[in-house]
Amino acid sequence: MIKKIALATAFMTLTACQSAYYSAMESVGVHKRDILVDRVEETKESQQDSQQEFQSALERLSTLINFDGGDLQDAYEQLNDDYESSLAAADEVSTNIDKVEDVAEALFDEWADELEEYQSAALKRESSKKLRATERQFEQLLRSMRASEAKMQPVLESLQDNVLYLKHNLNAQAIAAIKGEFTNLKRDIQVLIDDMNRSIEDSNRFIEQMNQN
User: Fold this and answer.
1) Cα–Cα distance, 23 to 5 (Å, whole number)
2) Is the pLDDT of residue 7 over 60?
3) CA–CA dist 20, 156 (Å, integer)
4) Stated pTM of the model
């Protein structure tokens, strides 16, 4: 019960902080629509950064499975650094997606509430139509973002397994075992990158549409 109360309190505090932030930004002429566009752009950029980190880790593994002498401890440390960088980049993507979803909900709630302030039925219908269209496009974007986000965790887990195995077995047999996992990991990373590219394309379309409106 205490844990539930603490979580509820934290959520209410976060919600209050977000509301205060949006109000403060609006007071200087930056509206929720502007914040949403900025956050979608930030998420897109973090996805691109994440792609680079995963690709770097894959290239490191590719070099490792062709290891023909040298310091395996050094090879492990480099691979571990790549894993840690991939993990941090993935966390940044998830954080940014959460921020996008938060401001979008605030924007759509505000838009729906303000429909009731219209005196002109024609303008109200037109605004309501635009709201529904924007919500549909955003839902597609969010699904795309969440789909690519969901594929990050299995890749991170596989990378971590390889890093741990190499750490515990710094020998030729470890390299052979990692080589056996490489094909599947390479495929999973490519699928993840392809999914992120689709999400990035959806982000570009959404940003363009919001700027036109």
Assistant:
1) 27
2) no
3) 36
4) 0.86
